[in-house]
């Protein structure tokens, strides 16, 4: 019997510590699994943001037939929801048994006092509200040689990369305290400039600790100052650049262009054959930036049961707050941001 075929489940329950090995094996072997399904992701969220994690497991005679990772996101500003997967851009049911797992998630939300359930990937369960036309994902194959990587970049964007290569910029990849400090300095300024609160620094520390050698930070510096940085994950031959950004100085030196070109080179040397640039909102600068690199947008469909939270910073509802946040001094934004951001998920 194919372990990943949509066969009926005999039982659906909340996994516990005794299920760790079976759950980890199922995720490791499933072709649709992402870092956002993994136990390491859930554990890092719990340690880094204090939001509780659950895994619903569907079982049949052969063992695990499907699972659904969930994070309880609770916020006095934005309400509460069970999210698969919280703080990630993917998730949803992995494997078969979509309807039983969806029903169990709704029941768990009710017991936990959560107002809704959000699935950020996978099949949309029957009767749930699909959410489309907001996000697209960008991913494509990654060549193995430096010159092939460069040639795969469209001409105009390739010219920007070549300009960046001509500047006196330092590139460093690592996982130590300096890497974390430089990344947080850059990333927090980047999101402040976008008008959004930054996640707690301990979230990034927990991610690196949880994923080990399957995660790292690449930073571009000029004259000793970090100006662009990204925290990436590696899984099943795919690199996932995830939390990345640049300072106001980065654009002048094409630091973000160098950042992702060097990440592609580093990932290829690790044996990766696919580059997942992640999701972006339609109509944003990030969306256009990824298209400039030759990535085609793949529309994403999410699903909601219950009343959906409004957490999109581009919503007209938050226009004033976003404009004000951009004007905050960075130290103040970094103090005020994490308690807010960990309730967004």
Provide an overview of this structure.
Helix content is 36%, strand content 28%. The chain has eleven helices and 15 strands. Strands 1, 2, 3, 4, 5, 6, 7 and 15 form an eight-stranded mixed β-sheet that branches. Strands 9-10-11-12-13-8-14 form a seven-stranded mixed β-sheet, sandwiched between helices. A hairpin with a 2-residue loop joins strand 10 (215-222) and strand 11 (225-235). The chain is globular, with a radius of gyration of 20 Å. 44% of the residues are buried.
Features:
345 residues, 36% helix, alpha+beta, eight-stranded mixed beta sheet, 15 strands, globular
Give a quick account of the main beta sheet: strands, pairing sense, barrel closure.
Answer: 8 strands, mixed
Whole-Å distance between the termini? Answer: 37 Å
Percentage of residues in DSSP E strands: 25-35%
Order of helices and strands: EHHEEEEHEEEHHEHHEEEHEHEEHH
Class of secondary structure makeup: alpha+beta
Tally of extended strands? 15
The percentage helix is 25-40%
Low-confidence stretches: none
Question: Mind telling me the C-alpha Rg?
Answer: 20 Å
User: Which overall shape is indicated by the principal axes computed on the Cα atoms?
Assistant: globular
Mean pLDDT: 94
Q: What is the number of helices?
A: 11
